[in-house]
């Protein structure tokens, strides 16, 4: 998802040669192409039926992933302390379902044992149950804080991670008042043991497990299926339907499937005469959809705790057409070429900024007018991890762009190209693509394939 208002890309587009829209005699076949026609082809569990698989995935993460990450970050203890109506962003990724809030003050304590395993403890008035063991329950708030201090001291951890960070919002969930209370109940000579857990939080949120990667393709396919429905004659009557009609169809279709969107679906159109210059950040407008229009959508849902982010393109056929014009087909192929350039630059240990620079060098050499702004996916649609460009900043991104690429992490392969279309009197068309994928340590694998053919509205 992105904001679509500023002209922010002039500095990286001036001097680029716009790629010609000449179609090769033999169109290139792009890997991992997949056509999905409807969300009806994919099962969606009822809210009740989601609880068991969500908790199974959580228990696996807490048992197998968390100990490795705490060792990686050299933390002996991790505290997640939050209150009802002011939950820590990481809290809901750590607690069993169904959980809707941190009841009153909720304290999670993760303690690394000598054998490398991690104790999962709570100091709460209300016990959470499996997989947590209650170290204290009941009593007053003052007694709860005292019990937490006594538990910490009894475990004698040398480095205690707490969630404060100037750079990562997801790791900044410990409020000032709770931090003050923690330092009040702990002896002063223990205060230097409190360190930021920001790197642990980022690693916990970005790392995907084998169980999650098994279900993720199904989730992404549902999102792509709803897009296909929206970009069809089932929804669109040319000359009557509006871009807002299509957006609301998608929103209501997800609601029907009991799947939350994490932002309002966005739909826009382009046609001959639509303003689109080299320095236009995002080309497109809203209105009544006509034959010959190019459509674009941006959609994101969350299911089984995992989020998607997808952008695809459609063409509304004229009465005498069986396919999109050759110039538009060539432009989409250029968008797929941009994807391939970007994903081949994914190398373990490279920073997001390094991937961006390598991608820009190759797209310039290929005379592709492009912009890259890819981001991690997972428990959040805009998840923590290596930022690979920003739509309004095609230079280095401090901190988030410096984060290294790890294996088994998921991404929205997001960006765009602009290309002249002969059938539009050489006007630029803006191809905006985004597909959910993961990096296995060697290559990028699209979770439910990618769009390499136009959605066609007849």
UniProtKB/TrEMBL annotation:
UniProt keyword list: Aminopeptidase, Hydrolase, Protease, Signal
Residues annotated as signal peptide: 1-24
Domain (Peptidase M24): residue spans on this chain: 222-414
Pfam family, one: Peptidase_M24
GO molecular-function terms, A-Z: aminopeptidase activity
Gene3D superfamilies found in the cross-reference section: Creatinase/methionine aminopeptidase superfamily (3.90.230.10)
Highest taxon listed in the record's lineage: Bacteria
Cross-referenced InterPro entries: Creatinase/aminopeptidase-like, Pept_M24
Protein name: Xaa-Pro aminopeptidase
Phylogenetic classification of the source organism: Bacteria, Pseudomonadati, Pseudomonadota, Gammaproteobacteria, Alteromonadales
């Amino acid at each position: 998802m992105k904001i679509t208002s500023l002209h922010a890309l002039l500095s990286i587009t001036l001097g680029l040669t716009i790629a010609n829209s000449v179609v090769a005699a033999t169109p290139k076949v792009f890997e991992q192409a997949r056509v999905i026609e409807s969300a009806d082809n994919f099962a969606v569990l009822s809210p009740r039926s989601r609880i068991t698989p969500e908790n199974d995935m959580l228990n696996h993460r807490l048992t197998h992933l968390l100990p490795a990450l705490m060792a990686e970050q050299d933390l002996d203890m991790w505290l997640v302390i939050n209150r009802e109506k002011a939950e820590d962003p990481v809290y809901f990724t750590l607690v069993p379902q169904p959980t809707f809030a941190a009841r009153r003050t909720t304290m999670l304590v993760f303690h690394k044992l000598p054998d490398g395993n991690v104790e999962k403890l709570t100091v709460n008035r209300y016990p959470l149950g499996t997989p947590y063991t209650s170290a204290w329950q009941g009593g007053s708030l003052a007694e709860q804080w005292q019990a937490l201090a006594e538990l910490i001291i009894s475990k004698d951890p040398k480095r205690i991670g707490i969630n404060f960070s100037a750079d990562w919002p997801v790791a900044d969930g410990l409020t000032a008042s709770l931090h003050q209370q923690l330092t009040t109940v702990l002896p002063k000579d223990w205060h230097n043991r409190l360190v930021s857990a920001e790197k642990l939080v980022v690693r916990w949120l970005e790392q995907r497990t084998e169980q999650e990667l098994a279900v993720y393709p199904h989730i992404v396919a549902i999102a792509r299926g709803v897009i296909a429905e929206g970009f069809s004659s089932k929804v669109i009557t040319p000359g009557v339907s509006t871009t807002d009609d299509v957006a609301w169809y998608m929103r209501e279709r997800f609601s029907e499937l009991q799947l939350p969107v994490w932002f309002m679906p966005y739909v826009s159109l382009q046609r001959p005469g639509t303003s689109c210059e080299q320095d236009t950040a995002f080309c497109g407008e809203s209105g009544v959809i006509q034959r010959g229009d190019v459509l674009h959508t941006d959609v994101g849902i969350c299911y089984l705790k995992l989020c998607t982010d997808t952008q695809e393109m459609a063409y509304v056929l004229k009465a005498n057409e069986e396919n999109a014009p050759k110039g538009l087909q060539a432009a989409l192929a250029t968008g797929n070429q941009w994807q391939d350039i970007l994903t081949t630059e994914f190398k373990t240990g490279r920073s997001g900024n390094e991937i961006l620079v390598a991608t820009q060098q190759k797209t310039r050499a290929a005379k592709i007018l492009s912009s890259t702004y890819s981001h991690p996916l997972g428990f959040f649609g805009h998840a923590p991890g290596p930022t690979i460009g920003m739509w309004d900043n095609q230079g280095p991104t401090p901190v988030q762009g410096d984060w290294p690429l790890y294996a088994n992490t998921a991404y929205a392969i997001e960006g765009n190209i602009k290309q002249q279309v002969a059938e539009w009197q050489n006007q630029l068309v803006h191809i905006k693509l985004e597909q959910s994928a993961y990096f296995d340590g060697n290559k990028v694998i699209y979770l439910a394939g990618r769009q390499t053919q136009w959605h066609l509205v007849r």
